[in-house]
Amino acid sequence: MGECGVPPQVQLFLRACEQGDCETARRLLGLPGGGTTTTTADPAVPSSSCGTEEAAEPRGEASAPPATTTAAAAGAAVAVDCTDEAGNTGLQFAAAGGHEQLVRFLLRKGASVQSTNHYGWSPLMQAARFGHLSVAHILLENGADLNAQNKLGASVLTMASRGGHVSMVKLLLESGAFVDNYDHFSTSVLNSSRDDLPDITPLMAAAQHGHEAVVHLLLDWGADCNYTVKTMGWSPLMLAAVSGKVSLAQQLMEKGANPDHLNVLHKTPFEISVGFKHKDMKDYLESLTTIRPQADTEKRQPDVFHALKLGNFQLVKEIIDEDPSQVNITNVDGASPLMIAAVTGQLPLVQLLVEKNADIDKQDNVHGWTALMQATYHGNKDVVKYLLNQGADVNLRAKNGYTAFDLIMLLNDPDTELVRLLASACMQVDKDKNKLNNRSSLPCSRSRQSLNVPMLPDDKGETAYLYVLWRNCSSSSSILLLWYLVDPRRRKDDVGRKLKLW
Q: Where are the ANK repeats (predicted)?
C-alpha cells in the first residue's frame, strides 16, 4: 500500500494522467500497447500519443502483447476510475491538463464522465476552469452534466467565467448552460438545496476578476445584474467595484444594476469602491448613488451591530462597557458581533470583543459558521492568526460538515499563508490526540513512504504540513504546494501550473 492508503500503481497512473502520458496510463491499466520503453529519452517528457484503438490494441493470438504488459495486466492493473485521497480520477487530471488524446482514451475505456472529487469538481469543471475547449467538447459529447455544481455552489459556467475564457463561456451557453445557475423558465431553482453555502453566479465571478468580454457575453445572454449572494448580500456591481474597472460597472448599469443596493454590512457599491481606493470607480458611482453613509448622529441610539458596520472602535467599546451582554448577542441570522468583525477583517475590533469575553467558538444559527470560518473564507489572515492564538477550535464543523480548513481548501485560489496557519493548527490538534492515544503523529511510517514522495526534514517541522496537506489535496499536487509553502523562493507560477485540481 502506498502513501496514506493510495497504492503505488494508482499514484503512478494518476501522475501519468496529469502529465498526459498515454503510454504509461495504458500500461498501468493492463492494456496492450503500453509496454516498457527502451529509449533513453528524458523520462520527464511524457508520451503524448495514445494511438488508435485498433493499432494500440491488436486482437487475436497472432498479435499477443509483450510479456511485461501481460504481467501488468495480470497482477498490477488499476481500475480506470481509481482515485487519490481527494477523490480525483485519472479523467479529472487529464481534463485539467487539457490532454485531449488521453481524455478520449480514458472515456473509451469506461472512465466516468460524471465523476466528482470530494469537493464536487467534475472533469468538465476542470476543463472549463482552465479553458481547455477541445476537452470540453469531448466531455459534452460523452454526456457530461453541463449544469453540475461543486460543493460551494459554483457551476461549470462559473468556472469558465472566473477564468475569463470567452470561447469556453460561449460554448457552454450555446450548449444549454444556465446563465445564472438556475433555469429562468422553470420554478425549480438549481441550487435550492445549497442554502447553507455561499453561492456566486458566473456574472459575479467574471465581474470580480475584471473579465469585461465575459461580462458582456453573459449580460447579452440575460444574466441577472442584480442577483445577490444570500449570505452576504453582494451584487455583481459590488464585485465590479472591487475590481476597479469602470467599464464593467458601466455595462452593468446599462442593464439596470441597482447602485443603491446594500449588502449585509449596509454598504453600497460606492462605499465599497471608496474602501478599495478606486478613484475612477468612486467618481463614477458617486453621482449614481442616492444612499449615503450613515451619519454619526445615529450614535444617539447605539447598537453594537450598527457600530460594527461603521467600524467605530470607540463606539463598540462604549456600548459593551455600558452593557457587557451585547458582546454575545445575535442578529436575526444568529451571527454574533465577533463574527461580523471577523467578516470585515478589523483586527482591533476582534481583539476588543475577545478581551470582553466574546464566545470565540460561537456558531451562527443559519449555517453553523464560527468567527474563524468567516475570517478564513474572507481571507483575513491577521484575524485567523489571532483567533488561532486565542484557542479557536479548528475542529468545529458547520452545518454542511466543513471545518475552517475544509473551507480554505474548497476555494479556487487558497492563500498559502492561510493554508500554512490552519494546517499547523490542525497538525497540533492531531499531535495532541495522538499523544493521548499513544500512537505516532504520522499516519504512515517512514519505511512505507512512496519513492515518488520525498520526505522533508523533521527538524524543520515540515512533515506536519505534508501530513495535513496530504490528507486534503491530490497525491501529486500536495507535495508541490508543500514545497512552495516551505520554500517561498520557488516561483509561484511554476507551482501553480501543477496545482490544477484546486
A: 86-118, 119-151, 152-184, 198-230, 232-264, 333-365, 367-399
